[in-house]
Amino acid sequence: MPPIAPTRAATGADLRQSILDEARRLLIDVGYPKLSMRKIADGVGCSATSIYLHFESKDTLIHALIGEGMRSLFGALQAADPAGDPVGRLAALSRAYVDFGLDNPELYEVMFQLHPERMARFPAEDYRRARRNLDLFEDVLASGAEASVLDAEPTPEVAAHALWTSLHGLVSLRLAERIDVRLAADAFTDAALARTVRAFRA
């Protein structure tokens, strides 16, 4: 995908978003070790100094990308979360998570599959905001356990992490195109999601 470059007159929020978009693209293309503010600036069409006005370091920029993705995921999960039946809610949230990952492959890779060796620790405040995504699953598992329709053993927190492991595995295999080519991808996804939710039925 070619760089998404703003005009050189772009400033403020527009320039900040263009920097994020180009950084995300470059992370996928060249990886964390080879990512530089100079490469981002060249792709955007601005000076490296302009980038530092928005992000104090490469790690700060990557943290902003991760935070952007986590907020987008939270919005998608909230929009898909129906009221009422915990089983229905769990199925809807699980589908929304997988759809988000498949629809946003570059963003998902930055959020969950980037493995830099020496990146600064993700800020605690940003982590708490990101944790809201898992909290949604934990909450529906807890309410389902109270209604005796979902199995949240040994605790809703552990069950939510186990569920996330299954959903992340599904998204990762689909994005990496590691599913047997004899299987219809969408039908496989539907079956995998149905089995995942069924595994948590009480």
TrEMBL record:
Coiled coil: none annotated. The keyword DNA-binding applies. Keywords: DNA-binding, Transcription, Transcription regulation. GO terms for molecular function: DNA-binding transcription factor activity; transcription cis-regulatory region binding. Residues 13-73 form the HTH tetR-type domain. Residues 36-55 bind DNA. It comes from Rubricoccus marinus. SUPFAM superfamilies: Homeodomain-like (SSF46689), Tetracyclin repressor-like, C-terminal domain (SSF48498). InterPro entries: Homeodomain-like_sf, HTH-type_TetR-like_transc_reg, HTH_TetR, MT1864/Rv1816-like_C, Tet_transcr_reg_TetR-rel_C_sf. This is HTH tetR-type domain-containing protein.
